[in-house]
Amino acid sequence: MPTIHKEILIGASPEQVWDAVSDVGAVHTRLVPGYTENTMMDGHERTLMLPGGGSVRELIVSIDPNERRMAYAVKEGRIPLTHHHASLQVLPHDGNSAKLVWITDFLPDLLAAEIQARINRGAEVMKETIETEVRGGNR
Fold this sequence. Notes:
Layout: E1 3-10, H1 14-21, H2 27-30, E2 38-42, E3 45-49, E4 55-64, E5 69-76, E6 83-93, E7 97-107, H3 112-135
Antiparallel strand pairs: 1-7, 2-3, 3-4, 4-5, 5-6, 6-7
Protein name: SRPBCC family protein
Pfam family, one: Polyketide_cyc2
């Protein structure tokens, strides 16, 4: 099973990054605007509405404020995954900045290049969005 491990250095405090990551119903405004147009919550299930009319259904598996870790699993989406589990964990890094560690396990293996590209772009958007929010600017 492929695993993608992505570390994102963010110019914001761990508390500020965790605030955005743990706000699971606001992915479309706090983490990846443009990648998602809206987020709908139904208990532990989250549906991300995508540009062009698609959607991704996810299960929020865990939100652990002590470890600053959120885990989720894709249940249904645009690409044909047979398994998906991911986590985002916020760690302190050099003074008042944070390291966001994004780990994703998935099947089938043949989707590795596509998943890696999506994670790389998602990481860029998350970093930019959180840093812009912290500076008090608009994206």
